[in-house]
Amino acid sequence: MSTVDPTTERPAGAHADGSAAAPERPRRRLGGELRLLAHQIRFEQLSFWRNPQAAFFTFVFPVVIIVIFGALFQGGQESDFFFGMSGMQYYTPVIAALSVLGACFSQLAIILSMRRQNGILKRLRATPLPAWVYFSGTLAHCVMVSFVLVALVIGVGWLYGVPLPVDWPALVACVVLAAACFCALGVAIASLVSNSEAAPAIVQFIQFPLVFLSGSYFPIHSDLLNTIATVLPVRPLNEAMLTAFARGGGVEWQQLGILLAWGVLGTVIAVRRFRWDPKPE
């Protein structure tokens, strides 16, 4: 039985013209989840900065690497070894890409494995927090850290005479997509790791060959290795960053497409295999 508003003599919840009012619940639910997302991003940021030692070395590591390369290649001339660029023009975007990989892949895989092992994820799953809010908050945090890292590397490279990126929109798009891709792969690896003690070794076992084959340590001139690395996720990121920095700019759609494909693959594995509870011993 419908109720009647005594002040207007029309059914409660109806408009003045007699039409039914739109339901408020979906809108309220969406607004509540967005507030939860903002809270989760803030929580991830506070958790990160409240561990000053970890935060310090997260930002110092790429800076130290680019400073070392700056001391080695400062004033270097363009050469075929660096594909027509100077050493610093090559290493500045590559180290920026490496810092995104570290912040979004290796750290996330290890942190999630530790949180699961310590029972944090199990307790979190028992709360009303939706899973998509938790992982979206983690992704947003990783994107923020990635931008800070890339800005630091660009700043140090500029001090050594490396020109600023020629295509900032392409650089931003590349960083955001790469962060999403490697976060998905990080969650996927965390879903396959049996315990937190094994996580660092597994992550390094996967990351080191990828970084080596992709030319992050030094340029690769082998056609075979370059062909292999092209279909892996790190080299497309390096190529897209190099284009945004020193190759005239523009969006490397093919490279970003490969990154997107790896991100989708990581998401599928994570959705199917991710565990909130520690694996029984």
TrEMBL record:
Domain ABC transmembrane type-2, chain residue ranges per copy: 53-277
Keywords: Antibiotic resistance, Cell membrane, Membrane, Transmembrane, Transmembrane helix, Transport
Short name of any one Pfam family annotated for the protein: ABC2_membrane
Compositional bias segments (type: Low complexity): 13-23
Disordered: region residues: 1-26
Parts of the chain that traverse the membrane: 54-73, 93-112, 132-158, 170-194, 201-220, 253-271
Lineage: superkingdom: Bacteria
Membrane topology of this protein: Multi-pass membrane protein
Localization terms from the record: Cell membrane; Membrane
Similarity field: Belongs to the ABC-2 integral membrane protein family.
PANTHER family xrefs: NODULATION PROTEIN J
Protein name per Swiss-Prot or TrEMBL: Transport permease protein
